[in-house]
Design brief:
globular, 4-stranded mixed beta sheet
């Protein structure tokens, strides 16, 4: 089976969907080199597939500011640990957030161990190949710290705002300013603190 791609124009920028022909295996920003490099090695073909149509419907619903009532067929990749973290992220409700530490604690309980590293979870979250649908943007640092999002802090804030997440206690850590190229809309500025 080959690898197939399809493009979707979104408010975040052009997205590239990747499929093995039956399931979605990737969704990322076309402008990000990691997304492009990951699919370039497979010599993908651009093709219209039912999985791309279904994913497009999911994205249309999401970008209208509504929680999609379905999930396209996904094929998760990575280590067993990375796949488990993705499975947990899939359970985070629309409009809610969880911390890296909360995911780590859940995995520790499942494994019957005392602790799991939140940093290890952060690495797995960062390796998520299916943005938005596997909602890594809903994972935040301890105490409301908006850390780490491969698509950029500005986009993470846009997505959380779209989902009407209460931004009151969320903040950008000191020294991690938002990109100057993409200023925040005025409606977001007063709701965000830099600590």
């Amino acid at each position: 089976m080959g690898t197939y791609i399809h493009f979707y124009d979104s408010p975040l920028g052009e997205l590239v969907m990747t499929s093995d022909g039956s399931a979605l295996i990737g969704l990322g920003l076309a402008s990000q080199q990691a997304s492009v490099a990951a699919i370039a090695d497979t010599r993908p073909q651009e093709k219209s597939l039912s999985i791309f149509q279904e994913t497009g419907r999911w994205l249309d619903t999401y970008f209208r500011g509504c929680a999609p009532s379905f999930t396209p067929k996904l094929k998760l990749s990575g280590s067993d640990f990375q796949k488990r973290v993705c499975e947990i992220m899939l359970t985070i409700p629309y409009g809610k957030t969880v911390t890296y530490g909360e995911i780590a604690a859940q995995i520790a309980r499942e494994r019957g161990i005392r602790r799991m590293s939140a940093q290890a979870v952060g690495g797995a979250v960062g390796a998520n190949p299916i943005l938005l649908i596997v909602p890594c943007h809903r994972v935040i640092g301890a105490g409301g710290n908006l850390t780490g999002y491969g698509a950029g802090m500005e986009r993470k804030i846009q997505l959380l705002t779209l989902e009407k997440v209460d931004m009151t206690n969320l903040f950008v850590p000191k020294g991690k300013s938002l990109p100057k190229k993409q200023p925040l809309s005025k409606s977001l500025r007063p709701r965000l603190k830099v600590k």
